[in-house]
Amino acid sequence: DRRSNTVLWGHRFTAEKRPELAIEIAKVMPDFKFLFCGNMPTEDHLNQINSLQNAEYLGIKKNLSSLFEVSSVFLSTSEQESYGYSVAEAIRSGLPVVSTPTGIAKDLADIKVEGDVPISWAKAIRLCSGSFASGKEKIKDLNVKFQQDWKDLIC
Predict the structure, then answer these.
(1) Sequential pLDDT tens for the chain (155 residues)
(2) How many Å apart are CA 50 and CA 79, to the nearest integer?
(3) What is the value of pTM for the model shown?
(4) Number of helices and strands in the chain (H, E)
(5) Are 86 and 19 in contact (CB under 8 A)?
(6) Nearest Cα to 52, choosing from 70, 37, 31, 38?
(7) d(CA 72, CA 47)
(8) Strand pairing category for 97-99 and 73-76
(9) Angle 87-91-94 from CA coordinates, rounded to 5°
(10) How far is Cα 109 from Cα 91, in angstroms, rounded to an integer?
């Protein structure tokens, strides 16, 4: 059962993934729970997350599917993605995605946000939260896109 008002951010804690932006978004949304997972967080990242009452660092997760089930939105603040497997997996699970227009999110994210203004991201998250995709059409689109990308790589 999906938990309302729970945002999942699951990426490496590197500059191009912009974890600092995700933390800033959590700061302006105290009524939402933010779950952070991924490798390479700095001590500063952990301190910032731990200082927030609405945020939690869950460590490294090889499989995010159990977290998709308890989240209401997947957040991707990445500046660049070659494909975006965590976004693709979130979409496959039927979880609404708020993302930058990069990788597969460029075509399939529920709401695409550009820039680094936390309030803009917060509005997008609020729009998506609680409105779960029926999934079937998006999953079909995702499978077609994945197969086409794979063919392009092989040819």
Answers:
(1) 567 899 999 999 999 999 999 999 999 999 999 999 999 999 999 999 999 999 999 999 989 999 999 999 999 999 999 899 999 999 999 999 999 999 999 999 999 999 999 999 999 999 988 654 444 345 445 555 544 544 444 43
(2) 24
(3) 0.83
(4) 7, 6
(5) no
(6) 31
(7) 25
(8) parallel
(9) 145
(10) 8
